[in-house]
What does this fold into?
Amino acid sequence: MRNPIPMQWNVPQRIRARMGEGAGKQRAMIEEGHLLLVLHEVPKAGVAERVARLFWRDPSGTWKTQGQGAGVGALREHVTSFELAVDGLEERLRTAERARDWFDVLREATPLQRTAHHLAHALQTAREGIDDREVLNLRDRAVELERAIDLVTLEARDAIDFITAQKAEAQASVSLELAREGHKLNVIAAVFLPITALASVFSMTLRSGLETWGAPWVFWGIVAGGVALALFMRSRLSTPAPSAPVKQQVEPAAWSTIPVAE
It folds into this structure.
């Protein structure tokens, strides 16, 4: 069976036995003073596969790396690549202006956040099993990295939620304005519809004998009755109640440093 650990690495057999054909998740394996770190490179948005890197430390403190780089410097560069990725997302987050900008940041930050969490957990396990100052420093950097990407993800999600609420508030305001304009049209119709109906009835040219009866008081009486009926219908129409404005504010994320205990 194919094993991802290079054959020239003199690692304990129990560590080799714990590895399948693939590298698997990020983790730290410690046996007989040997430390094997299985880590992943910075993930890319939309790509499900993860590229693994192996770092081996023997009991004498010598480091070997699978892939580019050599020694413990390669492990430092690995952590640095995550820090640079987070710095890039922070800069894009500060300059974001549209919902699409925040969504793109969140889309890239989500897999990075998950990978950074597992990286910090693997280095914490290594710190607990191996007394190495370099591992301690890298663990602390990974914890700060984990916190930074959490803040980026949280702020991007809050910004998207704020944009959504702002759009909903604007839509509600437009709907209320349309309802008020429609109410005005209903009032106009309620005022003039009775008068128009009466005028239509009494403007017919059919002979009824009322054309000259009681003139002009009958005419003004009909007009007054139409106006009274219009005012009555106007009083039956309710005015749309104004909605209270929604106030929402996204607080900027705090970027202060949190000390990490050993």
Q: What stands out?
A: The first strand starts at residue 27 and ends at 31. Residues 16-166 form one domain. The chain has five helices and four strands. Residues 133-202 form the longest helix (70 residues).
